[in-house]
Amino acid sequence: MIRIDLPRFERFEAWRQAARHLAGARVPSSQVIWADHDAAPDLFGAEPLPPPGNAPVSATRDFLDLARTVSFHSSPERWTLLYEALTRLQRERRFLKNPADPFVARLETLAKAVRRDIHKMHAFVRFHEVPSEGPRRAFAAWFEPEHLILEAAAPFFAKRFSDMDWLIATPDGVAHFDGALQFSDPVARPELPTDASHELWQIYFANIFNPARIKVQAMRSEMPIKYWKNLPEARLIPDMLADAPRRVRAMNEAGASNAPAYAAKVTARIRVPRQIAEPRSLPEARDQAAACTACDLCHDATQTVWGHGPVDAVLMIVGEAPGDQEDLKGRPLIGPAGQLLRTAMAEVGLDPEAAWLTNAVKHFKFTVRGKHRLHQNPTAGEIQTCQWWLDLERRFIQPRLTLALGASAAYSLTGNPSPLRGRRGKIEYARDGGPVLITWHPSMILRQKGQGAAARRELLEDLAHARAIILA
Known about the structure:
Distance between the termini: 34 Å
Radius of gyration: 26 Å
CATH superfamily of the largest domain: Uracil-DNA glycosylase-like domain
Mean pLDDT: 87
Number of domains: 4
Structural class: alpha/beta
Strand content: 5-15%
Number of helices: 17
CATH architecture of the largest domain: 3-Layer(aba) Sandwich
């Protein structure tokens, strides 16, 4: 048996180099033992690596992206599975495109668990300020991920908190940042001092708590109990849940104040939202969205236009709202603006079919002019009403990067209503913490007709930037 010992950090790069060597020598998977840094020594010794073989070995970008993600899983079988996938790829170049293949489904399950764990780490790390010897403030945090995701998750914090020194300690290692990101071996859980900002955070958390809108199951799904011990706000949750029925009764007994006379005109347009269960899958969310009546747009539109693309897409592209053709066919971004987008993506090497395409608003808003339905921009209220569906798409897709086309998409994702001129081409962050690249909506370029060349070049620059990010 050939034993390959992998380091604590940069494991994927070490695996990739060894796997290429072994596959080139046509070594079968059954003859290889992949050992993590903490694996016990082999009692019977191990054979040396064979000399490099002459068999050509190549890998697709899709495979490398999937393999890199799977490599952060805690399963000891992941290396063997990836090596088997690499050797199979030499015979079947497109087998990863078949989601019904049990082997592919198994790899995707591992990758999805890793992506979800990274998302949880981004959401639930809580920093404590610690004494600093330099001019910059310093912070430290402790986190216990389910998988070995420190290397994958840490760059997010390096971008977001680049103006301070920090470290994140986990049972598998420590990430340090002092202008450059580095990793070191694990240490015992540090004693972190009480942070004054945590008290402010608790006050804010208690004040936004609405006792009449408790969904305990959904809350525990998004904020699993295992993370509570490191969250300063979590200690408030049991008491707030216990006191919620009393507060709701008090609100009911207090009754409503007398509304002004014009309120009747407003409330006449408000419909009581349909009570629906929290969807457990993307298809279930799509089916629920098809019956949405939360705003007036549902009455005139032909249908709800749900997102389209692979469920494991690393890139999500969010437009404003469906147009005339999208409303009739039920597919996002297929009209003139969508065709311009797809052409531009192809020019920079992005596959439109590999991205999840969707809109901030799911119903077509228009005014009738003769025989034509002319597009109208959705209001801020309509965008906010539809955020429920966009948030569900993001929860199930968990893209690595989101491209916001235009002001409506940027507002829906980030909550920032500022003009796009100074934001275009820059990375901002969505409410759920994911990176969002802001760019022009292709419809704006079309409206400029012969004068849109500069905006089109900027769109191409942003698409190329997006490609570089997801391939990094």
